[in-house]
Structures are given as C-alpha cells and as structure tokens.
C-alpha cells in the first residue's frame, strides 16, 4: 500500500480518466483504490477542505462523496447542535455514512457514537476519525433501527440522522416515508431516547408537509432550518423535541445570511407598504427565504411593497442593506405593449431574464424580446396586483 499512497500523492492534480487509461503501466499496483483516492481528494478539496488538508484521510466511492454534506453545511449543523444542547454529553449519529456531519458535530460533545449499516463505511470512518484526531467517536456497525432499540432514555443526548434518499434500485426518493430509515416510524422511540433529535431531509420537500406529518399525534417540531449555499437550497433540517411547547421557528440560511421567521405570524401575503410610484429598487429574496414562503413577515420587516400575492418580488425607494437576497436598481419599466417595449429595449441586446407569476417562461420571453443571455442587465417579468403584466429593466447593486 506504500506504493499506492505515494502514487496518489504524486498524482493528486492529474486527470483521473487519463490515469485510468494508463493503468496497464502499473500491473502490481491497486489502481482502482489509488484512482478512487485521487478522485475523492479532488472532490474533497472543494467540498471538504479540512479533510483534504490531512494526508491520512481516505475516501470512499464516488456516490458516497456525492451524497455527503459539504464542510460549510456541516459547520452549520455543528453550531446548531452546540446551541441546542450546550451541556451535551453525547452525540448519536444513527446514519453515519462518510461521517462528515458526525466529525464536525462531535467536537462539541464529550462522546459520540457513529452508527452505520455499511461495514466498509464503518471501517473507513474508524480510520478517518483517528486521522482527524477524533478518538472519542465510537464506531458501531448496525442499522439505525436496531441500535435505537437498545437505547435507554439518556439526558444531555442529541440524536442526528440523515435518512438515505435512494430506494433499493438506487432511484432518488424525497418523501419522509420513502427514505431509509423511516423517520415517521422511529419518531416516538427517538424522542424517548434523546433530549433533541436533528433530522436532515431532502431540500425538495415541502417543509409545511414535513412538519404536519411529524407533528401528527402531538407537537414535536420546534425548528425548521432551510440551508442554502450560493443561493441554492442544499438541506432541510428539522429539530424535534418531546412535547414541544414553543412556537415553531423557521431559519433561512444562505451562506452567512440568516433570517428567522415565525410561520404562525405569517397569516397573509399582504405587503407592508404601498407600491411606490415610480419604484426605484427591486428586491429578490434568496432561495432559502423563497422556500420559506414567509413573505408577509419579510415585507413588513424591511418595509417593502409586494408586486402581488404570488409574484414574490418586492419594491422600495430605500436601500435595505441587510435584505436577505439581491437588490436591483430599476432603470425602465414596460407593459407587453409593443410600442412600450420598443422604448424599453432601446440599446439592450442581452440581458438576464427571470419571470415570476408571468404567463411566459423565461425562454419564451427571451425569444419574444429577441435578446441574448447574459450581460450586466436584468429583466424581471411579473404580474402586479391589478393584473398588469409588467417588465423591469434593472442593474444589480447588491448580492
């Protein structure tokens, strides 16, 4: 294995496919393993830089690397675990996988248990935890259900699980009941065994439906976390506690931006301010806030006017630097009237086009306007509260 490790170190930056074609040059070397390590490190360099910086860390097959959390989202869950259980004695990760989440969260606990049904991943986790200096993590080869059945109620314990979102045929699944293990079936046992349960679910799920399912038979969901990176939703995290009494809190995270809503207060999608005439600034919520659906609180919090109930674009003549999303300066507006459009498009050859609550798709509108993609101008097409189809030509002034 020394030769393989030296080969890996010497070829970390090389193209894996090219190396695979040259495998016949190395008949006495375990090339599949070496290529797996090179490919894994190249993924980890971007996704898990802390792991990639440690030579002794080893990597699994591509699918496991693809499915594991990024370092950024793992850090978020570690901070969340620390807040939820400040005096936490023990972390139980019932769906260990590659062990990324466990490795970051475990640093805030006196002890941790990693449970995984795949024996190969258990062996890899044992090796990597040692390489990462995490000797206090115990590795257990078991299913989540079997291990949970052995637990007695424990104080100062947090249980974490990330149910697999693929069925036996390898097809992606999203709903709670179609994932493995089934959180709905385990809920009662989980809440008996731990103070706090943290469940990572598919970002494709409707969080309202997930909360409704888990709260059936008694409230237990206390927090929902929509986690996005670079304006793309990556994770949906639910926090469960037995006999939850506090109002549900909804955390919208996009990189370093955090916005907290209380869904019970978001009874309507009415605007907090009248539409300015003319409007100077257009506000576009980030992906996490969009998924939250808490647009009434958003508008009220930042004194914004909504284009319409289902348009989810907002307007103001005041800059709100802390707004969770992008801010654009409006240069021109137009209806779909041909004469208005000619003046609106004067000098515009390319633009980034987005539609919200509009009868045409972005591609259809681009064709209708005869524009190319790209550039530093943006066109937003939407429907106003009075039913008017309106276009806004904008320049971005804030991320």
Secondary structure blueprint with pairings:
Layout: H1 2-10, H2 16-21, H3 31-47, H4 49-52, H5 62-67, H6 71-84, E1 90-93, H7 100-105, E2 111-116, H8 119-131, E3 137-141, H9 144-148, E4 157-161, H10 183-193, E5 196-201, H11 207-215, E6 221-229, E7 232-240, E8 249-254, E9 257-261, E10 281-285, H12 287-292, H13 295-301, E11 305-306, E12 314-316, E13 325-334, H14 338-344, E14 350-356, H15 362-369, E15 372-383, E16 389-398
Parallel strand pairs: 1-2, 1-4, 2-3, 4-5, 6-8, 14-15
Antiparallel strand pairs: 5-7, 6-7, 8-9, 10-12, 10-13, 11-12, 13-16, 15-16
Helix pairs in contact: 1-3
Q: Gyration radius, to the nearest Å? A: 25 Å
Strand numbers in spatial order across the main sheet: 3-2-1-4-5-7-6-8-9
**Would you tell me the structural class of the helices and strands?**
alpha/beta
Largest sheet: 9 strands, mixed
Percent of sequence in beta strands: 25-35%
Name the helicity range.
25-40%
Determine the number of helices (DSSP H or I, runs of at least 4 residues).
15
Low-confidence stretches: none
Average residue-wise pLDDT? 92
> What gross morphology would you assign?
globular
Distance between the termini: 48 Å
Count of DSSP E strands? 16
Descriptive terms for the model:
alpha/beta; nine-stranded mixed sheet; 16 strands
């Amino acid at each position: 294995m020394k030769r393989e490790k030296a080969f890996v170190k010497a070829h970390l930056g090389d193209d894996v496919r090219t190396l695979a074609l040259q495998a016949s040059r190395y008949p006495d070397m375990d090339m599949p393993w070496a290529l797996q390590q090179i490919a894994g490190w190249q993924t980890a360099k971007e996704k898990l830089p802390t792991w990639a910086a440690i030579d002794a860390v080893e990597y699994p097959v591509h699918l496991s690397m693809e499915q594991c959390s990024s370092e950024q989202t793992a850090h978020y869950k570690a901070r969340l675990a620390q807040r939820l259980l400040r005096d936490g004695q023990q972390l139980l990760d019932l769906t260990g996988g590659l062990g990324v989440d466990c490795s970051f969260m475990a640093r805030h606990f006196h002890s941790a248990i990693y449970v995984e049904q795949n024996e190969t991943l258990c062996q890899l986790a044992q090796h990597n935890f040692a390489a990462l200096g995490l000797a206090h993590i115990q590795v257990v080869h078991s299913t989540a259900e079997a291990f949970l059945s052995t637990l007695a109620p424990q104080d100062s314990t947090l249980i974490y699980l990330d149910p697999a979102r693929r069925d036996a045929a390898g097809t992606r699944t999203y709903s709670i009941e179609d994932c493995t293990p089934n959180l709905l079936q385990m809920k009662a046992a989980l809440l008996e065994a731990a103070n706090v349960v943290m469940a990572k679910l598919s970002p494709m799920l409707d969080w309202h439906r997930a909360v409704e399912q888990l709260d059936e038979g008694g409230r237990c969901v206390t927090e929902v976390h929509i986690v996005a990176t670079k304006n793309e939703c990556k994770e949906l995290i639910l926090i469960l506690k037995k006999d939850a009494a506090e109002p549900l809190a909804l955390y919208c995270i996009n990189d370093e931006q955090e916005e907290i809503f209380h869904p019970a207060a978001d009874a309507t999608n009415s605007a907090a301010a009248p539409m300015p005439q003319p409007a100077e600034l257009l506000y576009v919520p980030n992906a996490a806030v969009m998924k939250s659906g808490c647009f009434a609180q958003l508008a009220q919090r930042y004194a914004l006017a909504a284009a319409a109930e289902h348009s989810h674009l907002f307007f103001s003549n005041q800059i709100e630097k802390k707004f969770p999303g992008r801010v654009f300066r409006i240069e021109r507006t137009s209806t779909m009237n041909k004469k208005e459009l000619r003046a609106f498009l004067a000098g515009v050859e390319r633009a980034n086009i987005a539609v919200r609550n509009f009868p045409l798709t972005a591609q259809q509108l681009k064709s209708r306007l005869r524009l190319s993609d790209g550039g530093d101008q943006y066109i937003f097409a939407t429907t106003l509260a009075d039913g008017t189809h309106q276009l806004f030509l904008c320049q971005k002034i804030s991320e």
